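Usage

Read records sequentially. Each one opens with the input sequence:
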Amino acid sequence: MDVSGYAAMLGLFAEMILDDAVRKHKTQTLYREIDDALARGDEATFLNLTRELKMLQA
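and closes with the structure output:
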């Protein structure tokens, strides 16, 4: 494999790792916000956040 192909592959791999990290962070944040909404009894926020979580996991 030539150097430019190797660099492109490394760049793609780095992008995949970054995307996964961002998705995991967003998922953790949503779970925390969902728990807070449940604790407050805020049904509207709970429903919005769970909808967002479902879209993220699809």
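Summary fields computed downstream for this record:
- The mean pLDDT is 95.
- The two ends are 35 Å apart (CA to CA).
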